[in-house]
Specification:
Number of domains: 1
CATH superfamily: Vaccinia Virus protein VP39
Radius of gyration: 17 Å
Largest sheet: 7 strands, mixed
Strand content: 15-25%
Structural class: alpha/beta
Order of helices and strands: HHEHEHEEHEHHHEE
Low-confidence stretches: none
CATH class: Alpha Beta
Shape: globular
Length: 240
């Protein structure tokens, strides 16, 4: 079952997913990102990039942001270390964005804004330094990933981070154990997310069409991260 990526649709992606399911699902994702290293992947990426560029601020587009749990965590981290991180949290799901907006308002995070849009139709008013997709790209086919990267190429200056799940038996087994006893809808989506995830070589081959030397790494726990650089590519089509 791990030879090829699954193609089934997660329940959370359905337009009729209610607020309760959305809230509980993103609550589980918050646990998964914290305990499973997803937030750490993004933090380490930004720390490297900011040090590499020798800057104290960055404008970041967060794709499929959901409840914006990772941007909120990184905004707190940035403020603690003297960085100003401005996040635009993009999602097509109104209920998820409502959760994100409420959380940002509770914390007084004016540098976090939410926008409801499909990335393929999105018309930003300014460039971004980085784009980040945490457990977003496994929702897309290889062709869909290519379309998104092509779209980002026009208004992301430096790099895209793909922060996702590694498709492997260990990850699937651990998820089955961790989700024993939780509601079936959340368990279904959690397991399907892994089945739709990536093997490192597989992700590398997808990204090679968009970066001559993509960086793909395994991370703890059963995470895979891919980086596509826009700042070393020639002929970049800029709209700004």
């Amino acid at each position: 079952m791990f030879d090829e990526r699954a193609r089934d649709v997660e329940l959370l992606d359905r337009p009729d997913a209610d607020r309760g399911l959305v809230e509980r699902s993103y609550g589980f994702m918050k646990f998964a990102n914290s305990a499973g290293g997803g937030t750490r992947v993004v933090r380490n990426f930004l720390a490297r990039e900011l040090a590499r560029s020798n800057v104290r601020s960055a404008r970041i587009l967060d794709l499929g942001s959901g409840s914006a749990e990772i941007p909120l965590t990184l905004a707190r981290w940035g403020a603690k270390h003297g960085y100003r991180l401005e996040f635009t949290c993009l999602d097509h799901h109104a209920e998820a964005l409502a959760l994100a907006q409420e959380a940002a308002e509770r914390e007084g995070r004016e540098a976090i804004v939410t926008e409801r849009a499909d990335i393929l139709d999105y018309e930003p008013i300014h460039e971004f330094d980085y784009a980040i997709g945490s457990m977003f790209f496994h929702h897309l086919s290889a062709e869909g990933i290519g379309r998104v990267i092509g779209r980002l190429h026009g208004f992301v200056r430096k790099a895209l981070l793909i922060n996702d799940l590694r498709r492997c038996a260990l990850n699937y087994l651990v998820c089955r154990l961790l989700t024993i006893g939780i509601e079936p809808e959340i368990r279904h989506d959690a397991l399907l997310s892994i089945a739709r995830g990536f093997r490192p070589l597989e992700l590398s081959m997808i990204l090679l069409a968009h970066d001559p030397a993509p960086r793909v790494e395994r991370h703890w726990f059963c995470r895979v991260a891919g980086i596509v650089r826009f700042d070393r590519q020639e002929g970049s089509c800029r709209r700004f």
